[in-house]
Amino acid sequence: MKTEDxxxxxxxxxxxxxLRLREARALFDALHTADAIYAAGGSMAEAAxxxxxxxxxxxRRSIRTQRGDS
Length: 70
Description:
Elements: H1 3-16, H2 21-39, H3 44-51, H4 55-67
Helix pairs in contact: 2-3, 2-4, 3-4
């Protein structure tokens, strides 16, 4: 199964089981950001490039995630 198909299936499952969209987005964002940083060996610049954003935006996102903000 392709990644896009797995994401679609997971999104449907989350909706059916009552996970709110805001919570699902926050969870996906936190996991995606953490995994990008891990994949980049801790390099924020490289992780930002993997995500297609600038380093400052990734840094702000990682701080919000650590604080538990959405």
